[in-house]
């Protein structure tokens, strides 16, 4: 089984690593690492888990994730087909936290970046939705000389720190990783939910994925996610319902059923609780 503490290859004489991920899908296990991660999603869509936030990712999302913040970018099922023509492409920079302090980042001109790095403990995102100069900088970063990479990186970070569209994602800030077996349990649970949300899932089933009793699992899950299992399951189901409402012309009742709801009234109630809109209002808002 793949380790959840992700080891980022480092170069002794560099303070950050530039990486291009280009394949049929992204790494699909919940993981964390001590480096800060700056990532531009260039191609592909899917579900992201960042700390305690479950959301969609899409092209031209720019994200800054703090050290040890658990996360995964899980592509939609079509990307895992053996004959898929789908492409998952991202551009990332991994920054070693010991280099984000004085003397360089202690300069007064960089004070605003210190605030951004604090926000990154929750995960920060800007949705550009289209190519702009900042996304172009990220795409070109791997082709530049080390000094040019540093200048481009500072430009991108300055853009994030001064853009009013940036949003923090996770309610919980992560500073230190919990025990490795806790992350393994969380990964097992998230993977199970993302694979089976369209079917009935009992508390007994999901507790078994974490190798815990039901009562122990409830305590464990709330401690690590600040949510109950039913809250998270409903968030996953409604997130997928939103995607279907955007991308298909299926009737609302059929979408509810395909996302694991057997009762339309319950689906409507959970949808409004999570999105603050009814399904009908949501359709009008996006179209």
Structural class: alpha+beta
CATH topology of the largest domain: Jelly Rolls
How are helices and strands ordered from N to C?
EEEEEEEHEHHEHHHHHHH
Helix content: 40-55%
Order of strands in the sheet with the most strands? 1-7-2-5-8-9
Radius of gyration: 20 Å
Unreliable stretches: none
Number of helices: 10
CA-based shape = globular
Which architecture name of the largest domain does CATH use?
A: Sandwich
InterPro entries: Homeodomain-like_sf, HTH_AraC, HTH_AraC-typ_CS, RmlC_Cupin_sf
Organism: Larkinella humicola
Pfam family, one: HTH_18
Protein name: Helix-turn-helix transcriptional regulator
Question: Which features characterize this protein?
Answer:
287 residues, alpha+beta, Jelly Rolls, Arc Repressor Mutant, subunit A, 2 domains, six-stranded antiparallel sheet, three-stranded antiparallel sheet, globular, sequence-specific DNA binding, DNA-binding transcription factor activity, transcription regulation, RmlC_Cupin_sf
Q: Summarize this, please?
A:
The chain has 287 residues and is an alpha+beta fold.
Give the helix/strand layout:
Elements: E1 16-23, E2 36-43, E3 46-50, E4 53-57, E5 61-65, E6 71-75, E7 88-95, H1 111-119, E8 124-127, H2 133-140, H3 146-162, E9 167-168, H4 180-196, H5 203-209, H6 214-225, H7 229-247, H8 252-258, H9 264-275, H10 279-286
Antiparallel strand pairs: 1-7, 2-5, 2-7, 3-4, 3-6, 5-8, 8-9
Helix pairs in contact: 1-3, 2-3, 5-6
């Amino acid at each position: 089984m793949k380790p959840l503490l992700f080891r980022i290859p480092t170069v002794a004489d560099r303070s950050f690593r530039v990486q291009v991920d280009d394949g049929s899908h992204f790494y699909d296990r919940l993981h964390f690492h001590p480096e800060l991660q700056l990532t531009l999603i260039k191609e592909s869509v899917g579900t992201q888990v960042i700390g305690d936030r479950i959301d969609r990712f899409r092209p031209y999302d720019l994200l800054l994730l703090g050290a040890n913040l658990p996360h995964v970018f899980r592509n939609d099922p079509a990307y895992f087909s053996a004959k898929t023509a789908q492409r998952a492409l991202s551009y990332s920079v991994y920054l070693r936290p010991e280099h984000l302090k004085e003397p360089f980042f202690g300069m007064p001109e960089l004070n605003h970046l210190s605030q951004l790095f604090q926000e990154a403990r929750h995960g920060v995102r800007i949705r550009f939705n289209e190519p702009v100069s900042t996304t172009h900088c990220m795409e070109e970063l791997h082709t530049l000389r080390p000094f040019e990479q540093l200048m481009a990186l500072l430009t991108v970070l300055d853009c994030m720190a001064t853009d009013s569209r940036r949003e923090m994602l996770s309610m919980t800030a992560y500073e230190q990783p919990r025990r490795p077996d806790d992350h393994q349990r969380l990964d097992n649970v998230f993977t199970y939910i993302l694979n089976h949300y369209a079917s009935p899932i009992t508390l007994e089933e999901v507790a078994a994925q974490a190798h815990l009793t039901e009562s122990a699992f409830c305590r464990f899950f709330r401690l690590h996610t600040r949510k109950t299992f039913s809250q998270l399951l409903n968030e996953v189901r409604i997130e997928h319902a939103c995607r279907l409402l955007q991308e298909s012309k299926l009737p609302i009742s059929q979408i509810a059923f395909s996302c694991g709801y057997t009762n339309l009234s319950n689906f409507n109630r959970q949808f409004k609780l999570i999105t603050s809109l009814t399904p009908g209002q949501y359709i009008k808002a996006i179209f």
